Amino acid sequence: MPKDKFGETIYGYMKPLLTEDLMKDMHLECRKIIDEMMRLDLKMLIQKHQADFKSMGKKFPKVKPRKKPKAPPVPKPVIYDKKLIKQTAPVFDLNLVSKPTTKLCEVYGDLNYAAYNFNIIDPNASFPFPAYGDIKDRIRLSCIMGCGIQAGATRRKSVMLLGPERNGKQFLADAVAGELNAIKIDITPEVFTALVNKPLKILNQVFLTAKAFQPAVIFMKNVERVFATKVPPEDKYLKAQVLKAALAKQIKQISVDDKVIFIGTCTNPWSAKAKPMASIFDEILLVPRTDYGSLSQFLYTKLMSIRSIPRDISVQPMAQLLRGYSFGDIIKAFDEVMTPERIVR
């Protein structure tokens, strides 16, 4: 093998790989011996201290015993039998499970090139904010690769999508499930706690179903209602706060090897207790308002799909005008305006 590409070789093997592997084995062997030696040193040091205190006529203070760390819980393997079918059946009967086919390429978004230039000058720059395309790339890393399908990627058990209302957060969650070819289990309060008599029991069955049929995306819309400081009268029927402790416990119990991710959306974070809500998420992604580049892509693609529209139509003025409006409102207005009857006129 050429040295310029692979470095030095020993018997046809790359030298760095061999030496690193040998060093790892040596470290593991030496650590056991060093650990025993350090324990003996500590024991001898305590004995010397006791002798010093005795010579001064003082009582040696009691040494607090070291607390043994708790052993990490070993996840129970899922056994596929009739009992499992019986436990997961209520989740399917409630129509909580779906199979989204949306792909990430269907998400319109352009990068914020100004932010890139600012970050080169100052890596800690907090302005300007990322654009929709930047968040799209971040979702690919955190939610798709971080779900456990990519070896070496940073594992994410739970991710929050924080942003304005009707801005495509649920569509992004569907895109994650579509890219993973995963099932999506919706535990939004309107379709879950408001309709179920024993929500905590069903929540356990939801996470069991996700582990049994992984890869899986567990989704909750407006997760701030679970951690609300004050429940509005119109939301009391949802009984969302029942899930507060159980949800955090179930997310912690997701194993590193499980290809399961919890995605929650949040629109009004100021109406919830921030600390307990943020503690259940490994990462919080800010879904920004629409920008000029993302809207230009969206409008051009949408208009070019209509054959009667001139090919040289300019979408830049409209994109500039619609900046800041949510994608949900823009798509709704587009569908209402660009009807066949109006296009013919």
Automatic annotation (TrEMBL):
Domain ATPase AAA-type core: 159-288
Superkingdom, natural source: Eukaryota
GO molecular function: ATP binding; ATP hydrolysis activity
Protein's UniProt name: IQ and AAA domain-containing protein 1-like isoform X2
Species for this entry: Spodoptera litura (Asian cotton leafworm)
Taxonomic placement: Eukaryota, Metazoa, Ecdysozoa, Arthropoda, Hexapoda
